[in-house]
Structure formats: C-alpha cells, structure tokens
Amino acid sequence: MGSWLLPLIASVISLVFAIEVSRQYLRRRRAYQFWWTVSLLLYTFAAFAEFLAAFRGAWSPSLYTLYYISAAALVGFMGGGTVYLIGGRRVGHVFILVMGAATVAMAAVAASEGVNTAALAGGRVVAGQAMPNTVRLLAMLLTIPGSLALFGGAAYSWWKTRHHFNLLIALGTLIISGAGGAARMGRPEFLYLGEMLGLAVLFAGFLLSREVPRRS
C-alpha cells in the first residue's frame, strides 16, 4: 500500500463528514456544528496535503506550513465545538477566542522563522519535525486543550446519557491524539494510519448519534 493512500482515504472521509455536519448546521444553526464543520474542512485539507506530499515525493515549504497550522488548529476548533455543546455559548466563545489567538500566533511565528527544508526531503511523514520549537510549542496550546475538550466532552456525555456513540467519539479522539503524540516523540510512522482510523471511528460515532432523538 502506497504511503499516499491512507491520507487520501482520510481526506475523503473528512470531506463527507464535513458535509454531513454542515447539513445539520444549516438546519439547526448551532455553534458547535459550525466549528465542527470548520475543523473537519481543515482536517480534509491537512490530510490531502499529506497525500500530495507523499504522492509527489516532496513537501514544499509553503504547503508544509499551511498543513502544520491547519493540523493543529483543527484540533483546537473541534474541541471548541464540544465546549459550546457542553459548556454553553459564553464558555465556548472564550475557548474559541483563545484557540484563534493561538492559531494566529503560530502562523505569525512560522512565517517569520521558516521551516527546516532538509527535513522535508522525500515527502516522508515528518509531522512537526521541520518546524521550529517555538511553533511546535504554540501548536500544543491548540492540540492539548482541544483533545482534552473533545475527549472530556464525549466521556461526560456518555456518563450522563449512556449513549454509546460518545464512547466512539472518545475512542477516535484517543487514536488521533495517540498517533500525533507518537509523531511528536519521533515515531511518525503511525501518523497517517492513526489519523485515518481515528477519523473513521469519530464518523461512526457521529452517524450513530443521528439515531438518538434530540430535543429541538
């Protein structure tokens, strides 16, 4: 199996997922649906960027920079959607403002400091290894709170409702976070597989959630 196939599959799953959530948003106009749609579109872009780099055998510095910023921001915004759902609009607004500020700061530092082009050779899985340490630290301000919010929200919802789709959402979050954590620790070989499997589990949880009657 080519290294480009897994991120290509992930990008297709993410796009379909984003379309389904956006349809819910257009019907109900809930803030959490909006931010989940944004995060899934970023996921689609990030996975497709991984596919392009693997297929072409090379990362361009600009594509890699946009990919890394998107990959970190999507976690923060997905977690922000969950904060809106669990904590309400006021807490959600604060969380999203912090995530947005961290994204802007990360993009500004990445643009000013540049990337390690030697680490981009061959289009291999590099995760954050080509980014300056400052950018990688700023990315953690997005990925850690975002992952905790998404996992914690799913776990809390399961505890309150015992709806099993929440367990799938929590599991998908763990898979994606685990793959990303391993990549940050110098083991990026499982990143694409973890991103695809984790996203598929999240999507399965979302599809099951649609079968549960909701209050209007």
Map the helices and strands.
Blueprint: H1 5-28, H2 31-56, H3 61-87, H4 89-113, H5 133-161, H6 165-184, H7 191-209
Helix pairs in contact: 1-2, 1-7, 2-3, 3-4, 3-5, 4-5, 5-6, 6-7
Question: According to CATH, what is the class?
Answer: Mainly Alpha
Q: Taking all residues together, what is the mean pLDDT?
A: 90
Helical stretch count? 7
Oligomer type: single chain
List unreliable stretches of 5+ residues: none
How big a fraction of the residues is strand? Answer: under 5%
Helix content: over 70%
Structural domain tally: 1
* Shape label: globular
How many β-strand stretches? 0
CATH topology: Rhopdopsin 7-helix transmembrane proteins
Second rung of CATH, namely the architecture: Up-down Bundle
Distance between the termini: 45 Å
* Radius of gyration, in angstroms, nearest whole number: 17 Å
Sheet with most strands:
none
Helical/strand content category: mainly alpha
Order of helices and strands: HHHHHHH
Corresponding CATH superfamily: Rhodopsin 7-helix transmembrane proteins
